[in-house]
């Protein structure tokens, strides 16, 4: 196995051979992250066939020409291989020769799944404070083998207090779509979700698909959401750039949805799809008219559109593990559980410090920046 730089077209052609891939591993995502340098990597077998690909983002250490190499939710390789080291070793050699002092990968292998009824029971059980303490409905023993092999190879999972701020969530919430009809998906939701979807329709909430020209309207209520929920918002230019480069790669890579009630914009969301995987990526809503349930209406439209696009998974992205009644993020889990989907734990992110001293310095920098 050998690893080398490949072209954008080679990278995209390989992704098209897969059932799905993380949008964070598409060439366009490298263009979205303008503060990082990007490179498309290819894995070639002994017959010089392209058998794997990955997007690498390089983050430079201040004042030093050394880089952290980051492959978010990737690379796109055979994670079920008998020895994953045969895939990762040539990648590490390539990245080290490119000036990397450390590598972070995101293993897209599912370790455990918890179905909605299990999560609800766990929230009600005072003895269970974290999702990982609940008995999963599915466990992947190959994930345990993979974790053990990664440790043998010198990789380590970042700690919960890891300072490197670009990491992706290990726990996400997904709604399986394969083999389902709209009626079955609606029936699988809890009573509150079904009632809110029907209420929005009865009150005349209209959800439409917007365009780049509608991004300023989305951003206006996104800023309102950020102030209300206490997070730091991204500027409008970020969304305009993301919309432009993702849809330049594929004309239906990203969509914007807008929910109006009597002419007022009450909610807006973005939707991204690569093959059979569709993601809810950003959401916004107004404080006024929350009773018309614009957020539920936009989610339902994105779910049904994902189904129409033949997606097999609708992904509501990250959740935290906390299930205790006073956990500040419990409401987010409960909102997502209402869809009738499942919590998914990935093997997730792992680090390989190629130069431990420089990597420690970079980690300290990321902990204290801004």
TrEMBL record:
<keyword id="KW-0573">Peptidoglycan synthesis</keyword>
<dbReference type="GO" id="GO:0071555">
    <property type="term" value="P:cell wall organization"/>
</dbReference>
<keyword id="KW-0012">Acyltransferase</keyword>
<dbReference type="GO" id="GO:0009252">
    <property type="term" value="P:peptidoglycan biosynthetic process"/>
</dbReference>
<keyword id="KW-0808">Transferase</keyword>
<dbReference type="Pfam" id="PF02388">
    <property type="entry name" value="FemAB"/>
</dbReference>
<protein>
    <recommendedName>
        <fullName>FemAB family protein</fullName>
    </recommendedName>
</protein>
<keyword id="KW-0961">Cell wall biogenesis/degradation</keyword>
<keyword id="KW-0133">Cell shape</keyword>
<comment type="similarity">
    <text>Belongs to the FemABX family.</text>
</comment>
<dbReference type="InterPro" id="IPR003447">
    <property type="entry name" value="FEMABX"/>
</dbReference>
<dbReference type="GO" id="GO:0016755">
    <property type="term" value="F:aminoacyltransferase activity"/>
</dbReference>
<dbReference type="GO" id="GO:0008360">
    <property type="term" value="P:regulation of cell shape"/>
</dbReference>
<dbReference type="InterPro" id="IPR016181">
    <property type="entry name" value="Acyl_CoA_acyltransferase"/>
</dbReference>
<dbReference type="InterPro" id="IPR050644">
    <property type="entry name" value="PG_Glycine_Bridge_Synth"/>
</dbReference>
